[in-house]
Structure formats: C-alpha cells, structure tokens
Amino acid sequence: MGLMSSAANANSNRVVPAKSCKQQNSKVSENKGNKYLRRGRSGRRTKEMVEIAKDRMRILLAQAENEIIQNRNHIRARRYVILARRLGTRYNVRIKKYYRSKICRSCNSLLITSSVCRIRFQGGKITYYCKTCGNIMRIPLGIRPINP
Q1: Confidence grade of residue 78 (pLDDT, cut at 50, 70, 90)
Q2: For residues 71 and 115, is the Cβ–Cβ distance under 8 A?
C-alpha cells in the first residue's frame, strides 16, 4: 500500500507540457465573437462623459493657476496642465482660449507674468517668453500697426 501512494505522488509532481501555438491561436479565434471578452470601450463618448471632462479640465487649470500664484509650486502646476491636456485629447475637448494662450506649447508650463514668463507688446503682437524652456510665442492682437 505504501508503494502505491509514492507512485501516485510521483505522477502528481510530473510537469505538464505547455499547449502548442496552434491550440492557443484556435482558442483566441473562438473568443473574438464574444463581446464580453473584448478589452476597452467601443463606441462614442457620451455627452455626460464629455461634460465631466470639461469640468475636470476647468478645475485642473484653475488649480494650476492657484499653485503658481499662491504656492509658487511650478512643478505641480505643470502636472495639472499635462493632465488637463491629456483629458482634452482623450475626450476630444478643446481647452478654453483664456488658458490656451497661457500654456507653453513646448514645456506645458502655465505662463503667468513675472514668475514663469516675460510678456512684451511688439508691433501688433503679444510676445510671451517662457523662462523655463526659452520658447517664444507670438499672438497677434488683431490691431494692425500703422505704416507711414
């Protein structure tokens, strides 16, 4: 009786060979039709999701502005701007023009006067100079200079 139990233990410790690639591929092809086994979401974003994304973007950009003005924490403000931009790209929502003109396109820092950027008015344009990365943004004022 002792011999049978040791033989049973030897069989249970045996390594089972892995399935071949053909067996695995056939299993994957069977699951393609099952909608519950798919990953991610399909279809359009609902209006509620887009509205929530707009609200979150507005809150994140306002928090970024507060971080720079009150706490002088530029790293956290930059992180908030990156998160807001990522939300905008994911949900296909534009950032409001007020904030879009204040975001550096190369380093994602919020351009607030004297702390992060330098602003000049030159020849009908507003020139923003980012102090963190050295990028220059020129935005037309819509007023044409008078040429004599």
Answers
A1: very high
A2: no
